[in-house]
């Protein structure tokens, strides 16, 4: 399965300096994550049915190259770590320019929340397996 999506940056993504605003990087990473969940059968309706939701504890962005309006970017997600039961996880998203250079990385630490109890919970086994199947993050960036 391909874990990347391609986007074209929009006017709304830009800041007054003419390059992509800081929060747009996180927005593209989140969209890629949500799209992957939906491909695994965990769209908004399924999460609502299960009374389960993903939450973030930390989100960190490293800016490496400027991205301008109308540029094509590719965003992927790689598994950095996951607890044995799948409750907690860390995913690193890389945002690539069209020439393949990494423009930014967005690292998120997350978990699964039982929406009724408002406590962390173990997700369904198939969701744990889907996360575990993400390509692993390798320190050399590949």
From TrEMBL:
Specify whether Ribosomal protein is a keyword of the entry: no
Aminoacyl-tRNA synthetase as UniProt keyword:
no
Q: Which domain of life is it from?
A: Bacteria
EC number, as in UniProt: 3.1.2.-
Q: What InterPro entries does its record include?
A: 4-hydroxybenzoyl-CoA_TE, HotDog_dom_sf
Which keywords does UniProt give here?
Answer: Hydrolase
For this protein, the record's CDD domains field holds: 4HBT (cd00586)
Citing just one GO molecular function, the answer is: hydrolase activity
Recorded hits in Pfam families, A to Z, give: 4HBT_2 (PF13279)
| PANTHER family found in the cross-reference section | 4-HYDROXYBENZOYL-COA THIOESTERASE FAMILY MEMBER, LONG-CHAIN ACYL-COA THIOESTERASE FADM
Q: What is this protein called?
A: Acyl-CoA thioester hydrolase
Q: Species name for this entry?
A: Hymenobacter caeli
